Protein backbone atom coordinates (compact mmCIF):
# COMPACT_ATOMS: atom_id res chain seq x y z
CA UNK A 1 0.00 0.00 0.00
CA UNK A 2 1.27 3.46 -0.90
CA UNK A 3 2.40 5.46 2.13
CA UNK A 4 0.94 8.72 0.76
CA UNK A 5 3.40 10.73 2.84
CA UNK A 6 2.37 13.95 1.06
CA UNK A 7 -1.03 13.76 2.81
CA UNK A 8 -1.90 14.35 6.46
CA UNK A 9 -1.57 11.12 8.44
CA UNK A 10 -5.24 11.03 9.42
CA UNK A 11 -6.30 11.34 5.76
CA UNK A 12 -4.02 8.77 4.14
CA UNK A 13 -6.87 6.32 3.61
CA UNK A 14 -8.73 8.79 1.38
CA UNK A 15 -6.74 8.40 -1.89
CA UNK A 16 -7.90 4.76 -2.05
CA UNK A 17 -11.57 5.73 -1.92
CA UNK A 18 -13.67 5.68 -5.09
CA UNK A 19 -13.66 8.75 -7.33
CA UNK A 20 -17.09 10.02 -6.25
CA UNK A 21 -16.07 9.96 -2.60
CA UNK A 22 -12.83 11.78 -3.37
CA UNK A 23 -14.60 14.45 -5.40
CA UNK A 24 -16.98 15.01 -2.49
CA UNK A 25 -13.99 15.49 -0.18
CA UNK A 26 -12.36 18.00 -2.54
CA UNK A 27 -15.59 20.00 -2.77
CA UNK A 28 -15.67 20.59 0.98
CA UNK A 29 -14.54 23.92 2.33
CA UNK A 30 -11.71 23.61 4.84
CA UNK A 31 -10.01 26.07 7.16
CA UNK A 32 -6.27 26.57 6.67
CA UNK A 33 -4.56 28.69 9.36
CA UNK A 34 -2.34 31.50 8.02
CA UNK A 35 -0.03 33.94 9.75
CA UNK A 36 -1.87 37.04 8.54
CA UNK A 37 -5.23 35.75 9.77
CA UNK A 38 -3.73 34.41 12.99
CA UNK A 39 -2.99 38.03 13.92
CA UNK A 40 -6.56 39.08 13.14
CA UNK A 41 -7.97 36.31 15.36
CA UNK A 42 -5.55 37.18 18.15
CA UNK A 43 -6.62 40.82 18.02
CA UNK A 44 -10.33 39.95 18.10
CA UNK A 45 -9.74 37.58 21.01
CA UNK A 46 -7.89 40.33 22.89
CA UNK A 47 -10.61 42.91 22.19
CA UNK A 48 -13.79 41.11 23.10
CA UNK A 49 -14.92 40.76 26.64
CA UNK A 50 -13.04 43.88 27.73
CA UNK A 51 -14.05 44.69 31.29
CA UNK A 52 -13.95 47.93 33.24
CA UNK A 53 -14.28 50.17 30.17
CA UNK A 54 -16.97 52.73 29.42
CA UNK A 55 -16.95 51.67 25.76
CA UNK A 56 -15.67 48.31 24.52
CA UNK A 57 -13.55 48.21 21.33
CA UNK A 58 -15.04 47.13 18.00
CA UNK A 59 -13.73 46.33 14.54
CA UNK A 60 -14.55 46.52 10.83
CA UNK A 61 -12.92 43.79 8.75
CA UNK A 62 -13.12 44.98 5.16
CA UNK A 63 -12.13 43.71 1.77
CA UNK A 64 -13.53 43.12 -1.72
CA UNK A 65 -15.73 40.16 -2.60
CA UNK A 66 -13.86 36.88 -2.42
CA UNK A 67 -11.34 38.02 0.17
CA UNK A 68 -12.43 35.42 2.73
CA UNK A 69 -14.81 37.36 5.01
CA UNK A 70 -17.46 34.62 5.13
CA UNK A 71 -14.86 31.97 5.98
CA UNK A 72 -13.53 34.14 8.81
CA UNK A 73 -17.04 34.61 10.22
CA UNK A 74 -17.73 30.87 10.15
CA UNK A 75 -14.40 30.19 11.83
CA UNK A 76 -15.12 32.72 14.59
CA UNK A 77 -18.55 31.18 15.18
CA UNK A 78 -16.96 27.74 15.40
CA UNK A 79 -14.17 28.83 17.77
CA UNK A 80 -16.46 30.65 20.20
CA UNK A 81 -19.18 27.98 20.17
CA UNK A 82 -17.17 26.03 22.75
CA UNK A 83 -16.01 28.94 24.91
CA UNK A 84 -17.55 30.52 27.98
CA UNK A 85 -17.65 33.88 26.23
CA UNK A 86 -20.18 33.72 23.39
CA UNK A 87 -20.79 35.66 20.19
CA UNK A 88 -23.95 36.28 18.20
CA UNK A 89 -24.05 36.89 14.46
CA UNK A 90 -26.30 38.52 11.88
CA UNK A 91 -26.11 39.11 8.14
CA UNK A 92 -27.12 42.67 7.35
CA UNK A 93 -27.53 41.83 3.67
CA UNK A 94 -28.69 44.27 1.06
CA UNK A 95 -31.05 47.27 1.21
CA UNK A 96 -31.77 47.10 4.92
CA UNK A 97 -33.06 50.13 6.74
CA UNK A 98 -32.31 50.77 10.41
CA UNK A 99 -35.54 49.22 11.69
CA UNK A 100 -34.72 45.96 9.94
CA UNK A 101 -31.25 46.08 11.46
CA UNK A 102 -32.84 46.35 14.92
CA UNK A 103 -35.05 43.36 14.12
CA UNK A 104 -32.08 41.28 12.98
CA UNK A 105 -30.14 42.07 16.15
CA UNK A 106 -33.11 41.26 18.39
CA UNK A 107 -33.75 38.02 16.54
CA UNK A 108 -30.11 37.00 17.04
CA UNK A 109 -30.81 37.14 20.78
CA UNK A 110 -33.94 35.04 20.36
CA UNK A 111 -36.26 38.02 20.85
CA UNK A 112 -39.33 38.36 18.66
CA UNK A 113 -39.97 41.75 17.08
CA UNK A 114 -43.62 41.34 16.20
CA UNK A 115 -46.32 43.87 16.82
CA UNK A 116 -47.99 44.57 20.12
CA UNK A 117 -46.64 43.21 23.39
CA UNK A 118 -43.90 41.25 21.66
CA UNK A 119 -42.14 44.49 20.67
CA UNK A 120 -42.25 45.96 24.19
CA UNK A 121 -39.20 46.11 26.48
CA UNK A 122 -36.84 44.83 23.82
CA UNK A 123 -33.90 46.62 25.42
CA UNK A 124 -34.46 44.87 28.74
CA UNK A 125 -34.84 41.50 27.06
CA UNK A 126 -31.67 41.98 25.00
CA UNK A 127 -29.76 42.91 28.17
CA UNK A 128 -31.09 39.84 29.94
CA UNK A 129 -29.99 37.63 27.03
CA UNK A 130 -26.51 39.20 26.98
CA UNK A 131 -26.03 38.54 30.69
CA UNK A 132 -27.61 35.10 30.76
CA UNK A 133 -25.61 33.77 27.82
CA UNK A 134 -22.41 35.76 28.50
CA UNK A 135 -22.46 37.29 25.02
CA UNK A 136 -19.46 39.55 24.47
CA UNK A 137 -19.57 40.26 20.73
CA UNK A 138 -21.88 40.58 17.73
CA UNK A 139 -20.66 39.60 14.26
CA UNK A 140 -22.33 41.72 11.57
CA UNK A 141 -21.79 40.44 8.02
CA UNK A 142 -22.39 42.35 4.77
CA UNK A 143 -22.27 45.84 6.22
CA UNK A 144 -22.23 47.30 2.73
CA UNK A 145 -23.11 50.71 1.37
CA UNK A 146 -26.59 49.50 0.37
CA UNK A 147 -27.65 49.43 4.01
CA UNK A 148 -26.01 52.76 4.84
CA UNK A 149 -26.72 54.79 1.71
CA UNK A 150 -28.96 57.57 3.04
CA UNK A 151 -27.98 60.02 5.73
CA UNK A 152 -30.91 58.90 7.90
CA UNK A 153 -29.93 55.22 7.59
CA UNK A 154 -26.34 56.07 8.40
CA UNK A 155 -27.29 58.10 11.48
CA UNK A 156 -29.70 55.52 12.88
CA UNK A 157 -27.40 52.57 12.24
CA UNK A 158 -24.40 54.33 13.74
CA UNK A 159 -26.41 55.26 16.83
CA UNK A 160 -27.48 51.65 17.29
CA UNK A 161 -23.91 50.39 16.94
CA UNK A 162 -22.65 52.96 19.46
CA UNK A 163 -25.35 51.93 21.93
CA UNK A 164 -24.46 48.24 21.74
CA UNK A 165 -20.76 48.84 22.43
CA UNK A 166 -21.41 51.15 25.40
CA UNK A 167 -23.37 50.95 28.65
CA UNK A 168 -25.36 48.93 29.50
CA UNK A 169 -24.69 46.35 26.72
CA UNK A 170 -20.87 46.38 26.49
CA UNK A 171 -20.60 44.05 23.49
CA UNK A 172 -17.98 44.43 20.78
CA UNK A 173 -19.30 44.83 17.25
CA UNK A 174 -17.21 42.95 14.67
CA UNK A 175 -18.43 44.15 11.26
CA UNK A 176 -17.54 42.72 7.88
CA UNK A 177 -17.93 44.71 4.68
CA UNK A 178 -16.18 46.29 1.72
CA UNK A 179 -14.19 49.49 1.29
CA UNK A 180 -17.32 51.61 0.96
CA UNK A 181 -18.51 50.38 4.38
CA UNK A 182 -15.16 51.47 5.81
CA UNK A 183 -15.54 54.91 4.25
CA UNK A 184 -19.04 55.32 5.68
CA UNK A 185 -18.00 54.36 9.21
CA UNK A 186 -15.12 56.81 9.05
CA UNK A 187 -17.59 59.66 8.45
CA UNK A 188 -18.69 59.38 12.09
CA UNK A 189 -15.91 60.59 14.39
CA UNK A 190 -17.01 58.49 17.37
CA UNK A 191 -17.29 55.36 15.25
CA UNK A 192 -13.88 56.09 13.72
CA UNK A 193 -12.32 56.26 17.19
CA UNK A 194 -14.07 53.13 18.46
CA UNK A 195 -13.45 50.84 15.48
CA UNK A 196 -10.28 49.17 14.32
CA UNK A 197 -10.35 49.11 10.51
CA UNK A 198 -8.72 45.84 9.44
CA UNK A 199 -8.16 45.37 5.66
CA UNK A 200 -8.06 41.93 4.06
CA UNK A 201 -5.30 42.21 1.49
CA UNK A 202 -4.71 39.95 -1.54
CA UNK A 203 -2.16 37.17 -1.38
CA UNK A 204 1.41 37.91 -2.35
CA UNK A 205 4.06 35.40 -3.36
CA UNK A 206 5.57 35.03 0.10
CA UNK A 207 6.25 32.27 2.64
CA UNK A 208 2.76 32.53 4.12
CA UNK A 209 1.26 31.81 0.69
CA UNK A 210 3.71 28.95 0.17
CA UNK A 211 2.68 27.42 3.50
CA UNK A 212 -1.01 27.85 2.66
CA UNK A 213 -0.68 25.99 -0.66
CA UNK A 214 1.40 23.21 0.87
CA UNK A 215 -1.04 22.73 3.73
CA UNK A 216 -4.07 22.75 1.42
CA UNK A 217 -2.44 20.10 -0.77
CA UNK A 218 -1.90 17.89 2.28
CA UNK A 219 -5.69 17.74 2.76
CA UNK A 220 -6.48 16.53 -0.78
CA UNK A 221 -7.09 12.82 -1.52
CA UNK A 222 -4.67 12.51 -4.49
CA UNK A 223 -2.34 9.57 -4.84
CA UNK A 224 0.68 11.55 -6.03
CA UNK A 225 2.31 14.74 -4.71
CA UNK A 226 1.71 17.88 -6.77
CA UNK A 227 4.03 20.43 -5.14
CA UNK A 228 1.79 23.37 -6.06
CA UNK A 229 3.73 25.39 -3.49
CA UNK A 230 6.79 25.34 -5.74
CA UNK A 231 8.09 28.62 -7.13
CA UNK A 232 6.40 28.00 -10.49
CA UNK A 233 3.15 26.90 -8.84
CA UNK A 234 2.97 29.96 -6.60
CA UNK A 235 3.75 32.31 -9.45
CA UNK A 236 1.07 30.88 -11.75
CA UNK A 237 -1.62 30.67 -9.09
CA UNK A 238 -0.98 34.26 -7.96
CA UNK A 239 -1.16 35.47 -11.57
CA UNK A 240 -4.38 33.66 -12.45
CA UNK A 241 -6.14 34.33 -9.12
CA UNK A 242 -5.08 38.00 -8.79
CA UNK A 243 -4.25 37.02 -5.20
CA UNK A 244 -7.97 36.79 -4.35
CA UNK A 245 -8.55 34.10 -1.71
CA UNK A 246 -11.75 32.78 -3.27
CA UNK A 247 -10.02 32.40 -6.65
CA UNK A 248 -7.03 30.62 -5.12
CA UNK A 249 -9.26 28.00 -3.50
CA UNK A 250 -11.32 27.51 -6.67
CA UNK A 251 -8.19 26.99 -8.77
CA UNK A 252 -6.82 24.42 -6.32
CA UNK A 253 -10.13 22.54 -6.23
CA UNK A 254 -10.48 22.49 -10.03
CA UNK A 255 -6.91 21.24 -10.46
CA UNK A 256 -7.72 18.50 -7.96
CA UNK A 257 -10.97 17.60 -9.78
CA UNK A 258 -9.01 17.29 -13.01
CA UNK A 259 -6.38 15.14 -11.31
CA UNK A 260 -9.04 12.65 -10.23
CA UNK A 261 -11.05 12.54 -13.47
CA UNK A 262 -8.01 12.44 -15.77
CA UNK A 263 -6.36 9.72 -13.73
CA UNK A 264 -3.14 11.72 -13.40
CA UNK A 265 -3.55 11.79 -9.58
CA UNK A 266 -1.60 15.04 -9.25
CA UNK A 267 -2.44 18.70 -9.83
CA UNK A 268 -0.78 19.84 -13.05
CA UNK A 269 0.24 23.50 -12.79
CA UNK A 270 0.80 23.54 -16.56
CA UNK A 271 -3.00 23.65 -16.89
CA UNK A 272 -2.92 27.20 -15.54
CA UNK A 273 -0.03 28.50 -17.63
CA UNK A 274 -2.26 30.85 -19.62
CA UNK A 275 -6.01 31.05 -18.87
CA UNK A 276 -7.46 28.91 -16.09
CA UNK A 277 -11.02 30.15 -16.64
CA UNK A 278 -11.92 27.32 -19.02
CA UNK A 279 -10.77 24.72 -16.49
CA UNK A 280 -12.80 26.37 -13.73
CA UNK A 281 -15.88 26.71 -15.98
CA UNK A 282 -15.71 22.98 -16.69
CA UNK A 283 -16.28 22.34 -12.99
CA UNK A 284 -18.88 25.07 -12.46
CA UNK A 285 -16.61 27.70 -10.91
CA UNK A 286 -16.28 31.35 -11.90
CA UNK A 287 -13.24 33.41 -10.99
CA UNK A 288 -13.56 36.97 -9.72
CA UNK A 289 -11.69 39.86 -11.24
CA UNK A 290 -10.34 42.67 -9.06
CA UNK A 291 -12.88 45.45 -8.60
CA UNK A 292 -12.38 49.14 -7.95
CA UNK A 293 -14.49 50.35 -5.03
CA UNK A 294 -17.06 52.99 -5.89
CA UNK A 295 -17.37 56.18 -3.91
CA UNK A 296 -20.30 56.20 -1.52
CA UNK A 297 -22.89 58.84 -2.29
CA UNK A 298 -25.12 59.54 0.69
CA UNK A 299 -28.63 60.50 -0.36
CA UNK A 300 -30.75 62.72 1.84
CA UNK A 301 -34.09 61.24 2.80
UniProtKB/TrEMBL annotation:
Pfam families: TniB. InterPro entries: P-loop_NTPase, TniB. It comes from the Bacteria. This is TniB protein. It comes from Pseudomonas fluorescens.
